[in-house]
Design brief:
Layout lengths: L4 E5 L2 H12 L5 E6 L2 E5 L5 E5 L10 E5 L3 H13 L4 E7 L8 E6 L5 E6 L3
Parallel strand pairs: 1-4, 5-8
Antiparallel strand pairs: 2-3, 3-4, 6-7, 7-8
Length: 121
């Protein structure tokens, strides 16, 4: 259903470096640059970073990226730690969501809640 999403960021370079690091373990990479806008994806370009147009802080977004397996969630988390991302939740099972839900949550440079999740055992 979702084709792409664009999020406004305060520092395009810092945000691009963050997403370069944390999406690589999930198979994601930079796909396209259009002016200052940068897209990321595995195929296509579903995530766009665009420079913020309003100095007021935006509301927090929650974006969950699919991981092929639990090792990819762990690698996402390690990559986030390597770029000094704020940790919200280290990788673990979340049985309150469902018995195989394995996820890790961190903040991006703009304070958004970014998750990697695997739904397989």
């Amino acid at each position: 259903m979702l084709d792409h999403i664009a999020i406004q960021v305060n520092d395009i370079s810092a945000s691009a470096a963050f997403y370069d690091a944390v999406l690589a373990p999930l198979g994601g990479e930079r796909k396209k640059q259009f002016g200052e806008n940068i897209s990321f994806g595995v195929t296509g370009h579903p995530l766009w970073l665009v420079p913020a147009t309003d100095p007021a802080p935006a509301g927090e977004l929650h974006i969950a990226f699919a991981a092929a397996d639990r090792a990819a969630v762990d690698a996402f988390y390690a990559a986030a730690l390597a770029v000094d991302a704020e940790v919200l939740h280290a990788p673990r099972l979340w049985p309150e969501y469902h018995e195989s839900y394995y996820g890790a949550f961190v903040r991006d440079p703009d304070g958004n809640n970014i998750e990697a999740v695997c739904h397989r055992p």
